[in-house]
Amino acid sequence: EGAILRLIEDFPTLKFILIGDSGEKDADIYHSVAKRHPGRIAAVIIRNVKNNANAKRIQRMFARVPAESNYHLVKNSEEAAEHLAKLGYLHAIQIEQIRQAS
């Protein structure tokens, strides 16, 4: 969490997209950072690496945040890219590159 907070403080005019996985504490850390810095986190993307109790807990946590917070629990990189494209952060060619690399 400390490294993310330092980046946010070092670059006060930028918004951030936080990408992690459901295996550890990424979702909790990112949620904490987003609450501490409202408006600075453009999206939180968590890849579901295991369909387990932690993933279900993350789904419940994400369901409680406003939709405009752009929290997404995704199956794979392609789904993450599609969400980011809808937000205007990726282009169609980039999504295709991600599909081909998957």
Tag the structure with descriptive keywords.
three-stranded parallel β-sheet; single chain; 102 residues; 5 helices; alpha/beta
Strand content: 15-25%
What is the number of helical segments per DSSP (H or I, 4+ residues)? Answer: 5
Which stretches of 5+ consecutive residues score pLDDT under 50? Answer: none
Whole-angstrom Rg: 14 Å
CA distance, first residue to last residue? 29 Å
Secondary-structure element sequence?
HEHEHEHH
Q: Kindly state the mean pLDDT as a whole number?
A: 93
Q: Helices and strands: which structural class?
A: alpha/beta
Determine the fraction of residues in helical runs and give it as a percent range.
40-55%
Structure explained in plain terms:
By secondary structure, the protein is α/β, with parallel strands linked by helices. It contains five helices and three strands; from the N terminus they run αβαβαβαα. The chain has a three-stranded parallel beta sheet with strand order 1-2-3, with helices on both faces. α3 (53-63) links the parallel β2 (41-47) and β3 (71-74). α4 (77-86) runs antiparallel to α5. The model has no long low-confidence stretch (mean pLDDT 93).
